[in-house]
């Protein structure tokens, strides 16, 4: 037997037999910055949850309310530079123990409270999920915007939106009433920078001139191209970039009209009873996308200085300065509903109530309307063909039918494209 007992890495364990010692492997040490927060009601001991309307923690058993500890800081929220020191000092983890749902269908990773019984992926609605302890190796959010829209209000907004178009099935409003809307904090990056660009380009000015040819005066359009140059500077603040690739980029763009003046310092209590997703688009990748957007914004600022909208041979020398970033959580409600065995997704901004998502088209209605649009043109055209033998009277009727047919075809094409785009997000 070894002289040193217990071996390294083992600790004493409870024993039910007197005089018998039991040892077990020591659990892995927790990172010192991982503060464990227990959300228990101080009045009755029940679990608490975040209240969107009250902005704090509300006990669903006894009604106890605890106001949030942190005040709103808005756009004055601290920003961080792109330095090694900043990254090394950044806190990691959620500040509390959370479970993670790993979806086996879409691959999304979502964290939930440790006492949550949820077994559904909020992104695709799949029940094929694996629960495990959430990792604590990602950057900790520094700020968030609390939920302001309650779940029932969210459901009412969705019901009105799903039934707002005559092109959608009438049953969608009923689906909204039973759909499960999951409150999820989504990860976003905000970026700021000062850009400066020196530019030059050939700018065209169009004029009309008269000239003499073949014994007569004629007119022609001439474009004179001249070189112009200038300098544009922009101060860009709070440029939002999503930190997740699990949702449609078009859908996120539609719903990300958040009011950042309501940002508050991150506090793990805001996550009580709610789901949250860690970023899967890292800072460096999001910043590269943000720089491209800033480049285009600066380019447009340069073009606006040209004396004409006709520009060619454009070039600019762009510099970035004062580059800053934040990692924030923003509130959304996600719901996935099924219609005729096909899944559709709806997203509601948890701060403003703005809604976007996918809606199926009722093609029976649409084909009926298209047929009604085309019918007059077809009838007049046939009538014109039948009356042609009578002194050519059918030519006028047929012409009217042809015009009506063209108009009906154009409107039908617009209608078809609009219906096809309903769920194309």
What does this protein structure show overall?
This protein has 425 residues and is α+β, with helices and mostly antiparallel strands. It has a domain at 363-420. It contains seven helices and 17 strands. It has helices at residues 84-89, 151-162, 172-178, 249-255, 283-303, 363-387, 394-420; strands at residues 10-13, 22-25, 48-50, 57-59, 65-66, 80-81, 98-103, 109-113, 129-133, 143-144, 182-213, 216-242, 264-265, 275-276, 310-339, 342-349, 355-357. Strands 6, 10, 11, 12, 13, 14, 15, 16 and 17 form a nine-stranded mixed sheet that branches. Strands 3-4-5 form a three-stranded antiparallel sheet, with no helix packed on it. A three-stranded antiparallel sheet has the order 8-7-9, with no helix packed on it. Strand 4 and strand 5 form a beta hairpin. The longest helix has 27 residues, at 394-420. The termini are far apart.
